[in-house]
Structures are given as structure tokens and as C-alpha cells.
Predict the 3D structure of the following.
Amino acid sequence: MEVPGVAYESVLQNPKNFDFQVQQLGPGEHANPSTHEVFVDDGERIAFSSQIKNLQQQFADKLPPPAFEKAGARKTIFHNPASTRAAIITCGGLCPGLNNVIKGLVNVLEESYGVENIFGIRYGYKGLTSQSQHSPIQLTSFSVDQIHKQGGTILGSSRGNQDPEEMVDQLQAREINILFCIGGDGTLKGAQAIADAANRRGAKISVIGVPKTIDNDLGFIEKTFGFETSVQIAADIITSAHTEAEGAENGIGIVKLMGRDSGFITATASLANSVVDFCLIPETSFQFDGPDGINQAIQTRLAQNNHAVIVVAEGAGQDLFTNKQTRIDASGNILKDDIGELLKTKLSTHFSERNIPISIKYLDPSYHIRSVAANASDAVFCYLLAEYAVHAGMSGKTNLVIGYWNNFFTHVPIHLATKERRMVELDSALWRGVVSATQQDPLQRGLKAPCTQAS
């Protein structure tokens, strides 16, 4: 299956513009101590495109097909387990599964590789600066044994950019030679800056990213942890909104979900719970007034069913705000205006002017969804991501993030993963399914969205 949201034609037509090469600190000179691994050779690759026609065209053009390096344990490793000191850091917003990844990293380092010195950096990249008031905590399999049962992160998190040179100073002072960075776009860019700074000074530090973005919007990565849990919880909340709407005369339930620039959670949760009448995502524009506006569409739906449910991504409809001022958070992300409140206000005005009684319930469950523990599916995925991250780190890889593509775990150079933001493609099966389930076709007439956004 081709994954929507990555510029396939750009990659296939101009593969030289997309560097899939993974950085290596040096050759493996130590035997892998694990006795139960199936070892992977660096030459094993996972094709970017899974369609035969694309592969055939690449061969016909005498071009090597774009491909990822396959993740997995190497027979010989770069870092000596006896002298390895590893650190784990969590950055950005909370996401289901953070503690699962931490536990997985610790268990694999300790039990598969015999690494005894594993440290948790407190409160994100700030914990790698001299301003931090919190010393790293030592982690063992015993100390992390039960953390998967709770949401959030035992290490704490923060947003904001720090000086990569200072962070490398801190890593070297603590003799850390593997750093695992769990986070999304901003975290990975920070990890890349750390890896680049370490490379410039010849510091043999492996910097490995584990992809954490609840919006599931990293480029060249099919799936990130926490997404399935978020969809599951969101679908339950949509049920509550539907119950509230159904129990009132002309009841309207509005649910705002995460998704600054990509509507994957909103679209997937809407399709998972087919009581949704309108699904609004950043990739499509809509209007309030006019025959094809959402006000009239909801009025029509209320006349039919006496209730309606709207699920909207936080980044949808930002062009509808007047006197808009750009606001930036500590990580450099553009803060979005509250589209849920605007929907509530505009709908209230529309129906009040027509003397039609309505009852609106607005639910914003974002922080609840972010803070829950991972479900079983995400828990399994978190452990596997952690396992492959440890293999990559111990083998001396650096400046990469563990990806998932065509049912294989892969090594994705960080610059590639952060090159473009993955977005819902309006021709994809996902979005066509949403439009079919909601029957919101009038809102989509003539609309076409780009599949990626420069990151």
C-alpha cells in the first residue's frame, strides 16, 4: 500500500534530491552479545515504492529505486556494551506510549546488550543545559517495570530550543555515547542539530530518534506511536458528543481534536465512529455562509435527523479568523485559533437569526487524549520501535529516526523525516471513506489539497 501524504512523484522522478543514506560513526568492531537476534546486513533495503509499475520504471530508467536501510540488529556493533553510557530524553507534548518506549529502551539495552549505565534526562532538551536544576536519573529494568501502566512520561518534557553545542558539552561531560530522543518534528530537528555538532567535533555519539507525533504527520514514516490509542479514545468521545446531541432538540455536538496541519486523527476517528455528520480538517477549506456553507449544511442535517455531530481538527478553518495575529509557541509552532469556539459562535448566530432553537455542546478532549496510557496495539508498537532504536544506536548509526514502511522497520535520516509534513491526501481511501460515511460532499466541491507541507 502506498502511504498517502508523501510526494511520491517527486521522489520517484528526482531520487537524487532525497538522500536515504544513513550516517555511521565507524565500523563495527565488537561482537553483538545477543544470542537470539536475526542479524541484518547494512545492504538490506526496503523499497520506497511498493508498486511494481514504479519499480519497473526505475529499472527502465537505469536508476536505483529509492530505498530505506532496513532496521535491525547487526552482527558486529560499534559501541562496546561494557563502556556504553546511554541517555533517554522525551520532548514536546505528551503522547500515549512515551513510558512504553522508555521501558523498551531500558530493557533492550540492559537485557540484550548488557549496558549498565542508562540515564533519563529530565524535562526535555532543557535537561541537557547548565540551566537545568534536575540531574539525570539512573534507569534500570527494575525501576521501569511498571511505568507502562501510566500515561505521560516519567522523565518529564518541555518545549523550546537549546544550544546544540552546549548539549554536546553536557553529553561529553557525562560520557554519554548514545542519546535516544523521543519526539516529533521539533525534537528530531534538535536531535539532528546535536548529531551535527557532535560530528563537527569528532565526538562518537550516536543520536537516534524515536518518532513521537500524535498527529502522525512525519514524512517518510508510515506510522508513529500513540496514534491508534488517540483514535480509540477520540472515537469514544465522539460517541459522547453524539449522545448529547441526540438527547436535545436540534442538538449539535462539536468535538475538536488534535491536528495542527494534518487531519489524520480527525479523519480516522470520524471514520471509526460513523455517527459523525461533518469532518473538518486542515487540508480542506470550508465556509460558514452560502448554499454550500456549513451553516446551511447543518441546518439541512438537523431538519433530517434532529441532531448533528461535527468533528474538527484544531488547525482547520484558520483562514476564517479575522484580525488574525501569528503567535508562536516555545517550539516554534504556529499557535492555532480556536476553531471549535468559532464554529459554536457562528452556528449560534445563524440559527438565532432564523429563530431556530438549538443546543450546542462543545468538547475539547485534547489533553485527556494525550495523557492516557497506550492501548495494547500501541504498546506493542512502542516496544518494537524501542528495540530497533537500540539496535541502531549500538551499531553506531546516528542522525536517524526509526521508521515504519511497508510493514518493515527502517532507518530514516532525520533530515528526510523532517523535510515535509505528511498530510491527508484528498484522493486517498481514508478521506474518500470519510466523505462517503458523512455524506458531506457539498462542502468538498472543487477542493484539492497538497499532500505535503514544507517542514
In short: The longest strand covers residues 251-257. Confidence is low (pLDDT under 50) at residues 1-6, 444-452.
